[in-house]
Fold this sequence. Notes:
Elements: E1 11-14, E2 19-22, H1 32-40, H2 43-59, H3 67-81
Amino acid sequence: MTATFDPKANMVFCRKYKQDLPKMPNPPFPNRKGEEIQNTVSKKAWDEWLELQTMLINENHLSMINPEAKKFINEQRDKFLDNEDYERPQGWTPET
């Protein structure tokens, strides 16, 4: 029996971009939330989030062992991925 290639198998309907886009190969976290993100967020949106997350952590001097910092980053992640108003680094301008 030969396996058939399904191009949709590597796609996800991205909650940020509202379209089918390539999905992440693995969940970003080893838990239910990671699986949810893998199934609802494209690789493109996740890569953009990681870039923004790095800027937020650096600019705000966050320590990710601090529970309040983790809470802040998790809230900003969900807002970013859901197209809500999220914290932007100072001097940040969107790419055109």
